[in-house]
Write a structure and sequence with these properties.
single chain; mainly alpha; two-stranded antiparallel ribbon; 1 helix; 2 strands; 42% helix
Length: 60
């Protein structure tokens, strides 16, 4: 069981909780998974854009 901060009230809650026991936010684990997925996509897009950027070369 892992604990993480509820995105609404910032209390520590279980990753298996269906709702936050403090504020009642429904399915906080889904929010956490969605946030992690968005971060992974952003990281991938950042790496992809670096690969597409032409490298600077010295003067010829």
């Amino acid at each position: 069981m892992a604990l993480f901060d509820c995105p609404e009230c910032k209390h520590k809650i279980s990753d298996r909780a269906v709702t936050c026991p403090h504020c009642g936010l429904p399915q906080p684990t889904d929010y956490k998974k969605e946030l992690e997925w968005k971060n992974k996509i952003a990281d991938f897009e950042a790496l992809s854009s670096k690969e597409r950027t032409p490298k600077k070369r010295g003067r010829t």
